[in-house]
Write a sequence for this structure.
């Protein structure tokens, strides 16, 4: 039997149905929207979890212009078996997707956005004026025209509303963008007498100067809520898909790589990765390569000690408890709670449990890395941060360490360290270098159990890596700081401390046969290293 084609990169509902691509039915999203009937519904979900396909589906369902031809698209699907089919083709629809507005300046952003609005106006035979007032009120004015034409209120669908704002933040024109889009959305969604209802998708709920200021008619459903669970794939849906493509024997590995997300009380798979994995018949990190991940990498590059210490726990498979804010404030990215919130809502972390403080009433969530694909993203990000993109060089350096080729490792490390750090980053605190080394070493966590500042022998070592395979080398690091003239001696002191305080005793007790001991001393961009194996 010839299998249906997979809709790789296709997010137009009509194209998927008419071309008989493999389709997982999410049409009951329409049913839930109509049952809840909020005037404005915001549905933040991570990227590539089916937002655009679902919004396209809503457009084809409600669109009054092509009622009869669109009705056929829903034959046999879940929504066709409900009483909500009476709403099919009953409303004029304004549908815009902002997912491709990723440009370097505010002028280009406004130009690209207005091109979208002009296209939507042209669809109905209208011209959009270039004046600022007409631009900011373009949503409201088009709603009024469509109401007058059809004598029916309008449905507004805005996909990936926050993409221009996230880009604006990273490119330095956030203030202009937030000012314009706040006015644009307020005009179209707040007190619009021609609005039946609106649905918006995005990744984040952006709070700065509240982009939804004054909107008391908005319902927000995030991944923490137990509703609108029509994004991503359930385990049953993945099992059925793998069975259809005769790959059900791969379920265990696919679960390890792409499962682990939690939306409400449902465990969810990443659909983009599943589709690409089945199409290529190969386990690879597909999702993390669909964007430049600029904002997350920017946060990781800050080398915040609290973030690094908790990422250390996460890399070991543990969970961390954090207070999560559903409103992201870009000016507050130095706040570690904002960092964790951003990572959760963007899909780089997931949560297991929630608890409410009996004292403050604040909610906190246990966070973890959801799967192997995201772990590979963090690993790659750390490598790029510390090697300025020279991934191959880093790989050979860590291979030398793993194999005990210490002279080669030391030479490469000194070269990497010289290019990776700035005089402005370093200081007289040993903690900076400790966290720098943790970042370098976290990437090999699959082969080791990494611990820091733990008791062993007669004191506390700085960092230890105990191999999961006891036949491999164990690693113990001790760090010192000094001035440029003293670091050679300080490195020798660090190595002597490992031996004198018998930091390797716990590791050897656990069956590790050979331990590499490394003493490091830092002074700004200079580093001295002493090492031995026994």
């Amino acid at each position: 039997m010839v299998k249906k084609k997979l809709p790789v990169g296709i997010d137009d509902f009509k194209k998927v149905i008419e071309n008989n691509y493999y389709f997982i039915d999410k049409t009951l999203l329409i049913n839930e929207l109509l049952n809840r009937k909020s005037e404005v519904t915001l549905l933040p979900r991570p990227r590539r979890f089916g937002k655009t396909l679902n919004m396209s589906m809503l457009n084809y369902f409600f669109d009054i212009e092509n009622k009869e031809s669109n009705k056929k698209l829903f034959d046999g699907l879940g929504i066709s078996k409900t009483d909500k089919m009476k709403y099919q083709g009953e409303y004029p629809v304004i549908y815009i997707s902002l997912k491709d507005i990723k440009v370097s300046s505010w002028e280009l952003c406004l130009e690209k956005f207005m091109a979208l609005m002009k296209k939507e106006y042209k669809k109905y035979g209208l011209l959009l004026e270039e004046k600022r007032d007409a631009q900011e009120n373009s949503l409201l004015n088009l709603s009024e025209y469509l109401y007058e034409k059809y004598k029916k209120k309008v449905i507004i669908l805005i996909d990936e509303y926050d993409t221009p704002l996230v880009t604006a933040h990273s490119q330095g024109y956030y203030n202009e963008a937030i000012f314009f889009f706040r006015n644009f959305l307020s005009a179209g969604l707040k007190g619009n007498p021609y609005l039946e209802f609106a649905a918006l998708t995005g990744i984040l709920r952006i709070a700065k100067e509240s982009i939804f200021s004054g909107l008391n008619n908005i319902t927000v459903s995030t991944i923490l809520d137990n509703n609108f669970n029509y994004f991503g794939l359930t385990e049953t849906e993945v099992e059925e898909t793998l069975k259809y493509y005769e790959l059900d024997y791969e379920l265990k590995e696919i679960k390890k790589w792409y499962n682990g997300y939690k939306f409400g009380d449902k465990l969810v798979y990443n659909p983009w990765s599943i589709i690409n994995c089945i199409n290529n018949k190969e386990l690879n990190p597909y999702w993390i390569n669909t964007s430049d991940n600029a904002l997350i990498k920017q946060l990781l590059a800050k080398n915040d000690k609290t973030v690094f210490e908790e990422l250390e726990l996460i890399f070991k498979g543990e969970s961390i408890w954090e207070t999560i804010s559903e409103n992201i404030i870009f000016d507050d990215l130095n706040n570690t709670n904002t960092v964790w919130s951003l990572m959760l809502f963007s899909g780089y972390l997931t949560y297991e449990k929630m608890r409410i403080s009996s004292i403050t009433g604040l909610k906190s969530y246990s966070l973890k890395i959801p799967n192997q694909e995201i772990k590979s993203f963090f690993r790659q990000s750390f490598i790029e941060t510390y090697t300025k993109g020279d991934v191959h060089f880093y790989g050979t350096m860590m291979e030398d360490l793993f194999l005990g080729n210490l002279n080669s490792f030391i030479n490469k490390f000194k070269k990497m360290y010289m290019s990776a750090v700035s005089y402005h980053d370093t200081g007289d605190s040993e903690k900076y270098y400790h966290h720098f080394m943790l970042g370098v070493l976290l990437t090999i966590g699959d082969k080791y159990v990494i611990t820091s500042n733990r008791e062993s022998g007669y004191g506390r070592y700085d960092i230890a890596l105990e191999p999961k395979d006891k036949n491999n080398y164990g690693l113990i690091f001790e760090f010192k700081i000094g001035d440029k003239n003293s670091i050679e001696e300080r490195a020798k002191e660090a190595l002597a401390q490992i031996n004198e305080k018998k930091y390797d005793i716990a590791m050897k007790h656990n069956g590790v046969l050979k331990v590499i001991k490394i003493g490091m001393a830092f002074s700004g961009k200079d580093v001295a290293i002493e090492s031995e194996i026994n």
User: Anything to note?
Assistant: The chain has a mean pLDDT of 88. The two ends are 61 Å apart (CA to CA). The first helix runs from residue 13 to 18.
